[in-house]
Amino acid sequence: MKHMTRAALTLMAVLAVAACDKGRRFDNNVNLGAGANGAVVPGSANDPASPLYFQQSVGDRVLFAVDQHTLSDSARAVLNAQAQWLMTNADYTAVIEGHADEQGTREYNLALGGRRANAVREYLITQGVSAARLKTVSYGKERPIEICSVESCYEKNRRAVTVLAAGAIS
Amino acid sequence: MTHLTRLIAVLATAMAFAVPATAQDGPLRIEITEGVIEPLPFAIPNFVPESGGAGELAANITRVVSEDLTGTGLFREIPQSAHIGSVTSFSSPVQYADWKAINAQALITGGVTVQGDRVTVKFRLYDVFSGQEMGDGLQFSGTTAGWRRMAHKVADTVYSRITGEGPYFDSRVVYVSETGPKDDRRKRLAIMDYDGANTQYLTDSSSIVLAPRFSPTGDRVLYTSYETGFPKIYVLDVASVGRRTLTTPEGTMSFAPRFAPNGQTVVYSLSQGGNTDIYAMDINSGQSVQLTTAPSIETAPSFSPDGSQIVFESDRSGSQQLYVMPAGGGEPRRISFGQGRYGTPVWSPRGDLIAFTKQSKGRFHIGVMRTDGSEERLLTASFLDEGPTWSPNGRVIMFTRETQGEQGSASLYSVDISGRNLKKVRTEGAASDPSWSPLQN
C-alpha cells in the first residue's frame, strides 16, 4: 500500500462503493467499525488483512468498455493494489470472475467474460502474483449486479471481480 | 383445379418462397402466385368414440389436432357450433354438401378406441369442394398417457398432405426454465412437447445451466452447467435423466456443445487463457481435436445436416460474424457481410438456410440467410431476441425473447420462416435457450 498515491487510493475507494456481489464467498454484513478502544477488529473492513478490506478498500473489481477487455488506467491502479494485497496476504488464492452486460448473445458473452477475467489474471501475474494462485471463470451475462437495461447499469455489469478464497488453490 | 387445390397452391407457393415450383403428389400443381395468405378453412367434428369411455379422450384429441393446425397460421377452424352436418360414425359416407355449405375446404374425421392403457386413433381427410378423400385413412396407436402424440401425428399427416411440407408437431423442445429476479436468476433444464404440454424438469436449479441441444435422434441432450463452479459440458440421457460430464482440461471453460449428425461427435468451444476456439470430441473416446486456431473468439458451432461443414461465429474481423469451415477444420469462409453483428448460427435441417441472431443499432433480430450468406432476411426485431432453433421440417424457428428493464424476463417465441405467425410459445414460467427435437418415432 505504501507505493500507492492518495489519489489512487481515493479512486479505488470510489470504485469500491457498492461493489459487493450478494454475499458469495464472504459475508459483507459484518461491523465496519473499530473496537471499543479503537483497536482494529480482526476480519472487519478496518483490518487490512481481511477479505472485506480487500473488497471494500482495495477494490475487488475493474470495469470494461462495451465489448472490450483492455484494462483502463484506473483498472490498472486497482489491480496494482490487488497485486500488493495478494502478495502481502499469501494465504489467499483468488478466482477472477469475468462478466458481461446483457447486450450480447449468451455464448459470445461467456467467451468475452473469459477474456476479461484473463486480462486481469495476466496483469496480476505481471505485477508479481503467482500464477498458481489465480483461477478464472466467466459468467457471461448470467450474473448481473445491476438490473436496469441502460448504460448506467451495463457499465457496472461489464466487470471482472477478484474473489478471494482461503488456502492453496486446488 | 378445385377450390382446395387452388388454396393449396397458394399456400405451397407462400411456403416455397423463391424455391422453384415442384410437383406435389397426385394432380396438384404449384402456381407461382403473389398474394395475402388466407388461412384455409377446415371443419373437424369431434372424433367418434368407438369404445366405452373414449368420449372425453376423443374430444381432447380433436382439440389438439385443431390447435396444431390453426397454430401454424395456415389453417382456420370453422367452429363446431357452425356445423350443419355431423359425423356419428367414422365409416359412414361424408355428406359433402353439409360441409360445402359452411365453406369448409377440408374436413377431418376420426375415431378413437381405448383398450386398457392403449389408444388407437384413426382419421380421414376430405377435400370438400372436389368431393374426394385426400390420401388414405390412417390409424395411430399408443399409450393413453401419450394421447397427445396421437393427435400430433394426425395433425402432422393433415399438414403434410395439404402443404407438401414435412411434419413437425410430434416433437419436443428442451429449454432452460428460469425463476427469480434478474440478479438472482435460477435456471434448470426442462423438456416439453413442442406446444408446451407435458413439461418435465431434467435438472434442479442448484447451478446455472445453459443452452441445451438435442442429439440427432432426440435421446440425449448436451448442455453447459456450472455444477463444478466452472462451465463444463454435460450429456444427459432424456429417458433416464442420467448425466455425465465431457472431460476437458483443468483450468479451461467448455461450452456451446452441439452434436454432429452422426450422434458421436460433439463440437464445442474451449476457453483457455482468454482465447476461445472450437474443438470436436468423440463422445465415446473423449478424444478432442482443435478445429480453429485464431486468437479471437470462435463459438456457437453448428453442423450442416450432411455433416460435411460447420457454421460458427468469430470476431476475428473485429466483430461477431458468421463463417463456414469444413467439418474437420480448415480455412473458414466468411458468409455474413451486412451491417451489425451476427451470432448463434444454426443450420436448417433441410440444409438450405442458416438461422442467426443479428445485433444492429441496439436491436436484436432473428434472421435467415442462404448457406453462402445471400438472401438475408430478418424475421423479428426486439430489445433482445436470440438463439434460434429449427422445427424438424425447417419451416418454423423458435427462439428466446427477453424483455427489457428491471422486471425483464425471457420467453420462447416461434415464427414462420416467412416472418409470419410470430407468437409466444406456452411454457410453465419464464424460459430461454430452446432446442427443438427431431420428429419423434
What this model shows, in words?
The complex is a heterodimer of chains A (170) and B (441). Chain A is of the alpha+beta class. Chain A has one domain (6-166): 60s Ribosomal Protein L30, Chain: A. Chain A contains five helices and four strands, in the order H-H-E-H-E-H-E-H-E. In chain A, strand 2 (92-99), helix 4 and strand 3 (134-140) form a beta-alpha-beta unit. In chain A, helix 1 crosses helix 2 (51-59) and helix 3 (73-88) packs across helix 4 (106-126). The longest helix of chain A has 21 residues, at 106-126. Mean pLDDT of chain A is 83; it is low at 1-33. Chain B has two domains: 39-163, 3-Layer(aba) Sandwich (Rossmann fold), CATH 3.40.50.10070; 172-436, TolB, C-terminal domain (Neuraminidase). Helices cover 12% and strands 40% of the residues of chain B. The chains are: A alpha+beta (170), B mainly beta (441). At the A-B interface, helix 4 and strand 3 of A face strand 15 of B.
Notable features of this structure?
heterodimer; A: 170 residues; alpha+beta; 60s Ribosomal Protein L30, Chain: A; 4-stranded mixed beta sheet; 5 helices; 15% strand; globular; disordered N terminus; B: 441 residues; mainly beta; Rossmann fold; Neuraminidase; 7-stranded mixed beta sheet; 4 helices; 40% strand
Can you summarize this structure?
The complex is a heterodimer of chains A (170) and B (441). With 170 residues, chain A is of the alpha+beta class. Helices cover 38% and strands 15% of the residues of chain A.
